[in-house]
Amino acid sequence: MPPRSLRAHLLALWVLILASAAATAYLLYEFYTQSAAVQVAQAELQVARACREIGDRFAFFGTGWSGTVAEPDEPLKRQLTDVVVTALASHPGVEGGIWTAAGGSAAYAFPTYEGTGPKTDLPSAEIDTIRRINAEASSAERPVATRRASRTQTLVVQGCPLRGPIQGATAWTMARVHTDEGRAYGQLLAGFGFLAATVLGSALLLGRLLVVLGRRIARLEGQLGRGSDEGALPRLAETGLRELDRLVEALNAAGTRLAAARRRAAEAERLAAIGQLAAGIAHEIRNPLAAIRLKAENALASPDPARARAALDLVLDQVARLDRLLRDLLSLTQPRPPVPAPTDLGRILRDCADLHDDLARAHGVRIVVEAASPERAPLDEGQLRRALDNLVLNAIQHSPPGGTVLLSSGREGERLRIRVTDEGPGVPEAVRGRLFEPFVTGRPDGTGLGLAIVREIARAHGGQARLGAPPPRRTGTEATGPGATFELDLPWPAQSPVPRAPAS
């Protein structure tokens, strides 16, 4: 499973909070709906009781009456209104009256009305509902109830048939349940407000956390990306966030330990290099000294002057060998910083070939220079000549009679490639990995310092020396071995304009 980012985890947390808020809002609404349903049910019960109360009061009012009344007159209507007021006085919020099939409303009262005065007008907006419910109760000869819901309230109406002297009389009661008022509605609004505040607050908090974390982490990435020239971990600044600062402290402590470990490793490497160098020097000096001692002892023991002369010649040769060894060691251990200047590569390659042409002819080897780029490269000419001398001498010494040493150079983008190729037996696998180390050589008479000097010169120029693949053989030549190609890979800065060499 691929790892998830911190941003994804925080976003998932925000989604969970949003889902939880939605579920809570749904539960609040259901609770409010149930509370409103309970209020409506209570209103229906109260309206039914009030309607029965009007029926009981009307029956008591009509006791002892003889005959029937088709249409009540005004005095009778006032009496009926008193009956309704008495019946509804103990039912808060309930209004009602008496209805006749012939004349409509015979009495109306709302004794618990909380307005500025008693309410005596029949509610005009509900007249159709009142007429219909009374007609249904009269025709069914039983109580009939109805409910009409709107956005802000629910209207509950009930009609009851009356038994008495007035023909076709029915009682009706009505109550209004305001669903946008009361404790449940207030709790619903408070709950929604709290949910909105918490969801919005969590979104803002998580958004700010994402922004702050992103900036702090980007700053840490920038500090880590800069690093140092020696590859050590940089010292990170605190971010101001406790959790990230703990990570910063751990990284700083790790960087300190890494720097100490690198110093110890560098010291160990330096000591190992010194030991290796000392062993190589001892080996290289011991052989000439042994030869000098042997020849000197033989010359002292022999009365022949010619033998003494030959011994002195050998001693001088070995002293010269020691002198070359010490000179190479000084070049290797005390490198001089390069002084770049526009350098004609073609001329340097031709000069190097001319310098070693006699030695190459003595070995039966031919030196060929390919055309170089006419641009002048920013190089230290003296150090480059020294490196090419070592590479060409190495190629001549490894080339068999009839072989060819090829010198070439070319610019490849912002890099300069200088190659020296021979047709010798190639580099043995045993020394390929340590080819440029001091005192590593494939020849019995070699010191193993030439290629090491070449490597140091390349490094001083910001490049490298390496063993490359030999190029394809030219047409008309016969390869005498797999050969070897040594390559100098040097930078050619684009910001340094280099003038072209004058045409010859």
Account of the protein in words:
By secondary structure, this protein is an alpha+beta fold. It folds into three domains: 6-185, Beta-Lactamase, CATH 3.30.450; 242-333, Helix Hairpins, CATH 1.10.287; 341-491, Histidine kinase-like ATPase, C-terminal domain (Heat Shock Protein 90, 2-Layer Sandwich). It has helices at 6-61, 74-88, 127-140, 183-226, 242-301, 305-333, 345-355, 357-362, 381-398, 429-432, 450-460, and strands at 94-100, 104-109, 144-149, 153-161, 169-178, 341-344, 366-369, 376-379, 404-412, 415-422, 464-468, 484-491. A hairpin with a 3-residue loop joins β3 and β4 (153-161). α1 packs antiparallel against α4. It starts with 5 loop residues before the first helix and ends in a 13-residue tail after the last strand. Residues 494-504 have low confidence and may be disordered.
Would you list the SSEs in sequence order as H and E? HHEEHEEEHHHEHHEEHEEHHEE
Largest sheet: 5 strands, antiparallel
Beta-sheet strand percentage?
15-25%
Q: What is the level 1 CATH name of the largest domain?
A: Alpha Beta
What's the alpha carbon Rg, rounded to whole Å? Answer: 56 Å
Strand tally is 12
From the 3D coordinates, which CATH architecture of the largest domain would you assign?
2-Layer Sandwich
Cα end-to-end separation: 67 Å
Strand order of the largest sheet: 2-1-5-4-3
Uncertain segments: 494-504
Please tell me the overall pLDDT.
78
Number of separate helices: 11
Shape, please?
Answer: rod-shaped
Helix/strand/pairing category: alpha+beta
What helical percentage do the residues reach?
Answer: 40-55%
